[in-house]
Amino acid sequence: MSESTSPYKRILLKLSGEALMGEGKYGIHPPTLTRIAEEIAELSRAGIELAVVIGGGNIFRGVAGATEGMDRASADYMGMLATCINSMAMQDALEKQGLKTRVQSAIKMEQIAEPYIRRRAVRHLEKGRVVIFAAGTGNPYFTTDTAASLRAMEINAQVILKATKVDGVYNADPKKDPTARRYRTLTYMDVLKQNLNVMDSTAISLCMDNKLPIIVFDLGTRGNIHRAVMGKQGEFGTVVGASETVWA
């Protein structure tokens, strides 16, 4: 992929922690991690500036801990630490591909990551380094989706790529309902009104207020990150932030 073929110069890739599990039920699946790193490396070498936010659900999910009786704030901090583990794993995988990387954490842990500083993050991106944002926003009660939206705006990303386990946004669960239909494009308001499972309402509202588009796509198919960056919105996935809602 040549630099000129992509409509985006700087992107933020949002990965769920579950994306790193592969077909497993817990933890990190090294071959899956390597595949994702290879795809990110391809884009970086083409001149795309990349930032990454990874969830922690493959290790610990704060909301789940709270439902089991844990203090919500404590559970959320544990979830933030899980994102740091995933971020370090991704950093290692990317550096094995020959990339320069930086992990920036919203919670200070100087032995393993830089503190999050917006200007420093932007400078890293300008130098061609992949920046991995860890520990969410550093605050409980906020998801890594909200962290992705916030960081994307802070670094002036042109788009959020939301990698999931389904090939876009549907009006029902396609695994349970064979009549479920995929949206080709969605407005922010339709996502909020229909309570569609794209990102949490805080993240969607942040993107809406700042007119930041979100491309939702299936990470399971090799090459889909490339396709999303190429701007092939009509061919797969769903674009949130369009002027009207259109079925695929």
UniProtKB/TrEMBL annotation:
Q: What is its EC number?
A: 2.7.4.22
Which transformation does this protein catalyse, written as a reaction? UMP + ATP = UDP + ADP
What are its GO cellular component terms? cytosol
Pfam families given in the database record: AA_kinase (PF00696)
Q: Name one GO biological process term.
A: UDP biosynthetic process
Pathway noted in the entry: Pyrimidine metabolism; CTP biosynthesis via de novo pathway; UDP from UMP (UMPK route): step 1/1
Which positions are annotated as binding ATP? 14-17, 57, 61, 164, 170, 173
Q: What keywords would UniProt list here?
A: ATP-binding, Cytoplasm, Kinase, Nucleotide-binding, Pyrimidine biosynthesis, Transferase
Describe activity control. Inhibited by UTP.
- Per the record, the major location class is cytoplasm
Q: Where in the cell is it found?
A: Cytoplasm
Report the residue ranges that make up the Aspartate/glutamate/uridylate kinase domain in this protein.
9-218
Entry annotated with the keyword Kinase? yes
Its domain of life?
A: Bacteria
Residues that bind UMP: 56, 76, 137-144
Q: Do you know which InterPro entries this protein is assigned to? A: AceGlu_kinase-like_sf, Asp/Glu/Uridylate_kinase, Uridylate_kinase, Uridylate_kinase_bac
CDD domains reported in the protein's UniProt record: AAK_UMPK-PyrH-Ec (cd04254)
* Enzyme class name: transferase
**Matches recorded under SUPFAM superfamilies:** Carbamate kinase-like
Q: Which GO terms describe its molecular function?
A: ATP binding; UMP kinase activity
Q: Which Gene3D superfamilies would you find in this protein's record? A: Acetylglutamate kinase-like
Q: How does it assemble?
A: Homohexamer.
The UniProt entry, under HAMAP family, shows: PyrH_B (MF_01220_B)
Q: Which protein family is named in the record?
A: Belongs to the UMP kinase family.
Q: What does this protein do?
A: Catalyzes the reversible phosphorylation of UMP to UDP.
Q: What is this protein called?
A: Uridylate kinase
The protein's organism comes out as Corallococcus llansteffanensis
Source lineage = Bacteria, Pseudomonadati, Myxococcota, Myxococcia, Myxococcales
